[in-house]
Amino acid sequence: MTEENASESAGPRRIAITGATGLIGATASQRLREEGWEVLPISRGRHAGAIRWDPGASYLDRDSLEGSDAVLHLAGEPIAQRWTGRAREKIYSSRVESTRLLVQSLSQLQRPPQVLLSASGINYYASTEMGARIDESAPHGDSFLARVCRHWEAQALRAEESGIRTCLLRTAVVLSPRGGALAKLLPVFRAGLGGPVGSGRQPFPWITLDDHVATLLHLLDHPECRGPFNLVAPGMVDNRTFARTLAAQLRRPSVVPVPRLAVGTVFGEMGRATLLEGVDARPAALEASGFSFRFPQLEAALAHLLA
Known about the structure:
The chain is of the alpha/beta class. The chain contains ten helices and twelve strands.
């Protein structure tokens, strides 16, 4: 084993994180510190101990990145908004251009990090019917979000040219009562007004926040892992089953469907793309790498999250 490989096997201990204040970033930062990592947020704000950056101005304090063993890239404009022309531009540039800036900066370091974990989305793929069970070898889709993910990943993979092991995190809906989709749904379902969206037959790919963060630690600690990974629980369900399971956990009915027309009227293209369509993906690469989900099935996951 070479000295470089031995160093990576021992495990990096200094990690820089974009999006460190978001739901995933904040939880990952806390867990990483508990595991003995030194966490350096990459932030637009002037926070003590943070690495300054401003992707809109193509600025990143590259010198402060020196000595980082790993980088976790999670930053991006929220998807859940009406996709006006301006919103599309911000969604695209906040992912693609920020990743371009980050990777260019990493390539110019005297000692680049050993590994880059870069966020992406399960929307990389075209929407599917239930039963498709596609894995990481499936081709990309041609929707707006698929194009964003494809270009996002292409910029991240340029880090491999500098010898940086790169993992692409094709993330499903992350379930947590503290934020994201589940937090928005809970008041509706607790009021007895929850139900399936549209036909309810579209796949609903999901993963708990606990398992998402656990995958990050797993990928950091396994130097053989690189390339795309579907961050999605094995227990795939359709939208109707998700609604019924959530309502049952809350001891409420699930009888108020959200009509397809209403989704398009209220949310526009964003709603049609994220609520009326889905991807039946499986975590083939993660499972092949030896990762074990703590919450592979939805009922047990929701019981834990809502306890």
